[in-house]
């Protein structure tokens, strides 16, 4: 199809008269990795929540391949093809990664929670579950309780759960937040592996990660788009340097 897969126009979110997102236009091209960056409080998380239905916009529209999403529930939006990962899922401590992914796959088909205890019903998803776990590097940890997984591996599992929905657009909320250098490198590799023709939108503070992954970058400030373009252009834009890149958080 022509044009962006995800398009926001005039998005506004007001909290008691304060505009956290203030008239944002966003075009996310199909198959691209698009980063949302900006200083603390710029409105990145709020925008993310508007795109995924976790918040209802005060005004404006969000379209997925032309279809209006504004006002739909997060579940409906996920089923239509916009799924998010990181900082949302609470994993079940005693269930294994394999069981988590089987349940996510079952939920997608509508088989859902009614069958959640039936090994036979879930067994039909085991092949696909193994593929997804392999994809995110968890094949060797498929059968341990989720509670025993290291932090980076829990996040890899959350990514597998989002991928189980086979989304058109995958949204990643600060995928490297709280990680040490090794886990950051591993996560960058992981996102590269799973994007595979998929469209990815990510909120990310670590500019090295943005530089390695993003085809396009939107810089937000005070709820508005300050600049938009390829990373190489954005990083030289004096407005962006002044508003954001000079800040030590972004220089990490
Ligand atoms: N539920 C809410 N009620 C009132 N104000 C809110 C609410 N959510 C966010 N805000 C305000 O909206 C502004 C944007 O917040 P948001 O969390 O979207 O920024 P951000 O760019 O994601 O910041 P950070 O990088 O710190 O996560 C902030 O001033 C914040 O205090």
Automatic annotation (TrEMBL):
Recorded GO terms, molecular function?
Answer: ATP binding; ATP hydrolysis activity
Per UniProt, the keywords (alphabetical) are: ATP-binding, Nucleotide-binding, Transport
Output the CDD domains linked to this UniProt entry: ABC_Mj1267_LivG_branched
Coiled-coil ranges (or none): none
Q: Gene3D superfamilies from the xrefs?
A: P-loop containing nucleotide triphosphate hydrolases (3.40.50.300)
InterPro entries per record: AAA+_ATPase (IPR003593), ABC_AA/LPS_Transport (IPR051120), ABC_transporter-like_ATP-bd (IPR003439), BCA_ABC_TP_C (IPR032823), P-loop_NTPase (IPR027417)
Q: Where is the ABC transporter domain?
A: 6-247
Q: Which GO terms describe its cellular component?
A: plasma membrane
Q: Does the keyword 4Fe-4S apply?
A: no
Q: Does the keyword Nucleotide-binding apply?
A: yes
A Pfam match is ABC_tran
* The protein's name: ABC transporter ATP-binding protein
Q: Which organism is it from?
A: Actinomadura rubrobrunea
